[in-house]
Amino acid sequence: MPGEETADAYLIWMLGEAARDGAVFVAEASGVFAGFAAGWIVQENVIEETPDSNRFGYVSDVCVPPAFRGRGIAARLLEALEARLSLSGVARIRLSTLAANQAARAAYERSGYAPYEIVYEKAAREPDLKP
């Protein structure tokens, strides 16, 4: 499974990003892991964006195992991460999810997030190499 093959490298990368100017929050329920959220400050230089859009808080990950979903854990993790990122003076906090992940989209919208940019994708056709 591709996720399992990259999980360790991703975790090292994510923790490194969060260590610079972000945070990772972990939720526990009766001493059992119940989820986490990670994020950091992003500084971009996109010419058509305003300064407050080029520097923003970014929520990279929100994970709550199925057994703990529906308890508001994701919302509390997001609130804690938003508070931490806001200390850096950002005006915006962004996150992303796959379009098909309806549960995550609904949770983020309940937490006050709204679509900002929509990215479309299409599989490329195989080139016709016949002479």
What are the SSEs and their pairings?
Layout: H1 2-21, E1 22-29, E2 32-43, H2 51-54, E3 55-63, H3 73-86, E4 93-95, H4 102-110
Briefly, what is this?
It contains four helices and four strands. By secondary structure, the chain is α+β, with helices and mostly antiparallel strands.
Structural class: alpha+beta
Fold-level CATH name = Aminopeptidase
Number of helices: 4
Secondary-structure element pattern, one letter each:
HEEHEHEH
Can you characterise this structure?
- It is a single chain.
- This protein has helices at residues 2-21, 51-54, 73-86, 102-110, and strands at residues 22-29, 32-43, 55-63, 93-95.
- With 131 residues, it is of the alpha+beta class.
- The protein has one domain: Gcn5-related N-acetyltransferase (GNAT) (Aminopeptidase).
- A four-stranded mixed beta sheet has the order 1-2-3-4, with helices on both faces.
- α3 (73-86) links the parallel β3 (55-63) and β4.
- The protein is globular, with a radius of gyration of 17 Å.
- The chain starts with a helix and ends in a 21-residue tail after the last helix.
Summary keywords:
four-stranded mixed beta sheet; globular; 36% helix; alpha+beta; 131 residues; 24% strand; Aminopeptidase; 4 helices
